Records
---
Amino acid sequence: MFPVRSLVTISVLALLAVSCGTDSADSTTTVPTTPSTSSTTVVSTTLAPTTTVSALFPVEVMTDLGPVSIESRPERVVSLSATHTEIIYELAVETQLVAVDLFSNYPPAAADKTKIDSFSFNVEEVAALDPDLVIIAFDFQGESAALAAVDIPFLLLGPPVDLDGMYQQFRVIGDALGVSGAGEALATRAEERARAISADAQSITGQRFFHEVDDTYYTATSASFIGDVYSSLGLVNIADSAQVGGAFPQLSAEFIFDQNPDLIFLGDAAFGASAETVAARPGWDVLSAVAEGHIIEIDADISGRWGPRTIDLMQDILNAVRDAQR
Amino acid sequence: MSTAVFPVGPTRLRLGPITVVGLVLVGAALASLVLGPAGIDPWGAIRETLDHLPFISIDSGLSEQDAAIVWQLRVPRMTLAGLVGATLAGAGGAYQGVFRNPLADPYLLGVAAGAGLGATIAIVSALPTASIAPFAFVGGLVAVASAYALALLGGTRRTGATLILSGVAVAAFFTAIQTYVQQQNADTIRQVFSWILGRLGTAGWGEVRLLLPYALGTWLVLLAHRRHLDVMSVGEEEAATLGIDPARVRITVVITATLGTSAAVAVSGLIGFVGIIVPHIVRLAVGPSHRRLLPLSLAGGAAFLMLADLVARTVRSGGELPIGVVTAFVGAPFFAFILAASSDARR
């Protein structure tokens, strides 16, 4: 019964790559992530006027399941995704938040909220919190149908495929929680920062890389969100030239050797992968990225989410590549 | 009078089937060596491999990178596929003989569930990757030992059926624990599934060295028992009257096959269907005698898994398919075809 069950699961494995990668609480990383202290102050200044304008309910927002109308400003929000918890805190409306997903480990203050395990979704557990809005990022376990059945308003906002999709979700969350101005400001500021970082990334443009999701060489192509972050830096993904389907395919070691990428990004650093373990793999020492030490560990939490810290990650990747090649 | 129920007709290995299986095996090995997404010159790949054999020194003419692809990736992966395939097919053939049940496979007594639990514990405890194999190995052995203990408790007559049922119960129990541990540690679910789906993609010489002694030992013991299995195929009581202790043969064969299977599973994850399909194809081709079945299953299993792995790593250029998907997707229809063809031939 083992293989059968796993065969059924394989179709969702690729998608889980995103969600699972996000879930390690204590990821070790060499990429220091700049806490967005400056940005929080920007938000709070823009917040003051927007809270007064927010009486414009009902509001209609676009979700993955089509437009959803929210009748009044939600005061008891449940976030079943670590990404959306981060966005809500960044918009400084966490007072409207009553519970968050188990893996919502950022910002640290989120630890004080009631925790819900979205991996074993139980609609009664959610309903018991009496929420007036639930935000979900995945619908693997029939979350949307279950919430609809008990008349709990919800937004399904799955992983976007690119940065534009992320900016759009900032606006949607802002609109839905009654802080449209803050949502718009967050989106605009993120977009401007990303554009500036891209413009600054000329020196690394065209470099070819392999992004490792796990130590069996699952990867993320440019069709994935993290893939778009790399593309925005002008980097070239070796997985794009493999004849494989989906955004998270498994590459063969031989293909990676044949491509001989300039850079290796370790999305599995939290699970023990490091420059040393990669160099210790049989034969890998012939790869130029290994020989020249161009192996960069990526924070699994941030790279698996699509929140305000994604732009910090862009900057960190750019810095790390420059440092490695100095 | 008892001679009448022995398998009738020639039971010795004949040259024909050996030649066919041998050629398929050599062909599978050569194909695994020269085919791959890197498009390396086939003669270069062969010369590079020969260069590593003792007393041979040839310049392969390959770049350092291509040489590493051949000797560090293709050859160990092919070798491991061969060892795992042979061990699973041999163990499957032996299990089917000892339990006289055509559906018996190497995972029957809970090896897969136990190994899965062991591997899951190693993964969720964030132990180094190298510890997954020993954990899986021990897990598999513990599961089968539990099945045996349960069978001893459950029945005064230690028949095969009691043992199979105990195996089913133990497998269900271990799978339940494994699933619970996995769900409690959702952050490592990807690693767990990647192990469960079977992995030859990261195989290196280290895995080959780990498995080799167990594989060779398993093959030797199983081959040494092929006559006993033939005698047992007429029935346990009949075998006992012929001076064979069925319980002893069964426990020796089961322990050996379990050790081999656990070792194979520990390095490669769960690869299904090999242990069922290969012995049955061999049986359809040469008949039920274990004297022919076991050696040909070993060679055939090696060839089958090498070819399945070749498909897994080349069908989508640059990508991988889970090996278990290939063994089932290619193996099951092929098996159905052989089955249909052989029943036509008998008509």
---
Amino acid sequence: MATPKGSGIGRFDLGDWRDQVFAFDYDGTGKLDHLACYRPGTGTIWILKKVSDSDSPEAFAAVYHQGDPGQGIAGYNLADSRDRVFAFDSGGTGKLDHLASYRPGTGTIWILKKVSDNDSPDAFAAVYHQGDPGSGIGGFDLGDWRDQVFAFDYGATGKLDHLVCYRPGTGMIRILKKVSDSDSPDAFAAVYHQDNPGRGIGGFDLSNGGDRLFAFDYGGTGKLDHLVCYRPGTGTIWILKKVSDNDSPDAFLPVYPTNAVLPVYTTLTAKISALFAALPDHNFNVAGNAARAALVNRLMGCTSGTFGFDARGAGGSLYTFSFRDQFFYGFAPDANAGYITPATGLGDDWWTAFNVVVICQAIYYVTSNTRNAVRQPDVNNQVAALNGALQSAHVNFFYAGVLAETVGTRVQTVFAQIAASDRAQAARMYVSLLENPAWISAKVGQAASGQWTDQLWNYCTIG
Amino acid sequence: MDSAGRLQFAPDLSVAQGTLTIDDNVVAVAADLPPITYACAVARNTGTYVTGVAPALQLHWDLTSADWDSADWQQNVLQFTYQMQPQTIVGQTFYDFSVSFRDEQTGATWSPADGKFGCLIDQNSVFAMTLASGSPPLDNRLWLAGEAGKIVTVFPYQIALQLSATAIDLQGAALTVANAQYGVTLGVSGSTASPSINGYYAQGGSESNFGVHNGTLYVAGSPVMGSRLVGAKLSWQGLDAKAQQASGLPPAGTLLFDTTGERFTLTETGTGGGRIVDEAAEALIARGAVWGGM
């Protein structure tokens, strides 16, 4: 069934094949509640606001419009059919209230800020601009017609305040961070870059002219902090996760598909070095989550005792139920839980005792009447003491094992490449590097500079 | 020889003090972070450049560029050393950087005075040093032949060096000649001693042995002055006949170790050897002690 021809929206007729539309936070409210509609090559751009819930083009009204032909916006004339515009968080405020306009092949890119509510081109002003021809931005020259740019949440901060610039077919890609407010190309600096020819990103080589990327919230965290890379016509689509801040292709790893080609480290030294750089993701620590889930599961699994009632006198049966099923209905052992006791030496008796005080603590905090039967602060003290005992029992050894085996972590990627016969030597090398004054001094220097921001994550080890 | 020791660390683990007892002699010792020295190759025309205006100049380099790869790199030109030194102010420990530079080809050295420079290691492990005032000393390299003589000076106004994840290697850029955009930028690539190259070693089939500790060659228990481990290369010179006999090494030479520190090759002869462990090490070290006493 063909889609019937329509009338566009808010008097923007969408009558030209070049027309583009995207969502925009015109009012700077943190809501993408306006539509920006533009027609590259004609100077036409309209920004529409919803004014009613009716199902008609008049439900939207223009708060800004330049007709066909028009003057574009803020001096950016939109006179070339290659022009592209998108919403960008240039201020790092968490709001997509700036517009980025660029013209592939010419070095032209402007970033526009709304300075008034007027319906005229000077309602927006350029906070960054490189004319035609220009020098691009942050070392990305925008000198090829294939060039693409979009906003990305590189830091997983919930802000689309970085720019991804790439050139399909060449492996070239840059992720740019704004480092100053100056109107010059070095106002943006690359936090990741591959020049032409380059190796792409996270194993996705960007070698095909049709390759496309966009930002995606893979983890369902509300952050567009993953990259989807796809190659139309080939069935290829990868989803990349940032696993380190390094400026190298293995700073990103595919979380989809899991059999994607991963970085290969040829020497044992390179593998150890990669392990050093493989810190967990602050915001999406899949190995940490897996280890925590297994520990909680082990605790739940040791719920002891049964209860029941005897209905035999009434012609029924003797019914018994386990407290575990009562408290944790549908309990099933976690695949990693079986490794906890071998790693920590803490057996069923210990976990059962821990379980009893944790349940008592829960009863104290969640019930109204029964809580009076729980002796406090004894229970809290016991929970704290047993948590301390768990840590003293080297629960980190268990975590290290989970870290090494959890797919989707950079540690697992590297660890899988260390042959079992090399692991003892790898562990010795890792420890010697960890104890090396060069590394210690670098970390002390980083701390003295106020720049060691991920200290708590630096406790990686080889299991 | 009986040895014992005791070290007491400060609460923040920044320094330690204590005593060592060697036979009947007791000496006071203090431990802190040692200086870290990187032996660096240097090159012009590596594609490095500088942007901004002093004092906010920013160095740029690109390890993936063709310029970086094809540059005429001069090996072992610059020795860059830094040390984190604790200072206690009102009961709290703070660390200060000290830095020094040595031009290995001219022998010129430079240690900027406290307060004359600023240092920082950022979150991405980029080591940056900026000279706050004054100029580096003269480093007359013009008499050097070839490409080496075209490098006017290796003493920088600024450096920005990316440390590797293990801090064994660094690569980056140095701004020389002038503290401005028109200054001369150099590519810098260096390494410090690999900690894996540590322990006792012997050439294949030889009963002689030697040790490597803290980046220095040891023969019969004594350090060989002037020996130096840079990355995976251990170089020395001036071994006398007795030391040659004890170690099985020539008077001067270079050992190239594998990355794990298990095997080595003597570059002058191509002969190889490896780490000695357990009983073999004890036996050979005992022999070394005898040699050492000769």
